[in-house]
Amino acid sequence: MTVGELIESVLLRVTGGNLNADNDVRREDIRVLVGPATSFVLAQYSQEQLRTQLQISRLNGSGMYTGSYSYSTTYKLTPVLDEDRGLYYITPPGNILRLPQESGIDMVRPVTGRKSYIGVKSDAEISGIPVAVDAVFYWIEVLDGQTRVYMDSVGRPVCDHYLRAILDPNDLSSSDEFPVPAGVDMRVIDILVAHFEGQRLFPQDYRIDDRDNAKIQN
Q: Strands 80-82 and 87-90: what pairing?
């Protein structure tokens, strides 16, 4: 399912298939909330997957896997040097979907070599780590509306890097595939439909008069 198809599905359900200029809900209204709804649903989905893996691990002693590798997208990017900070960073083609533990990023590694980097919340987490530690750390920063993935202790010369991540659906075009596992897209649709149907049926009363004057609209 593409992003555009998901938005159309929500619009059709909310309007009952009666698409006209008098509808209160519009495509642009839905698109604004697709990102937050996706974050919420994927956080739930990740917790479910973690519980399932834990149960399987307890039953047969197998290892556990986590992450979004099954539905994330891989990008080949060229690092840029931030001369003020002396750090290299890569710029994804859109904002990364913000998920718990920054799991919107599944992998960062150089094109040459198999070594993957370690994700941290910020550069403050690595301030006490000895320089001699043979590891490269990365973290997300947003500067002037631009998302950057900074990397510390990158070996030189610096080559292109692979970034495997989930982009915020709001930064995708209508023809792009919706970045969630198969079946999970229906949960996003259900949440958005519930939101807009509730908004339509029970409009918010904004008057400050100690009375709730919201009425069901027929």
A: antiparallel
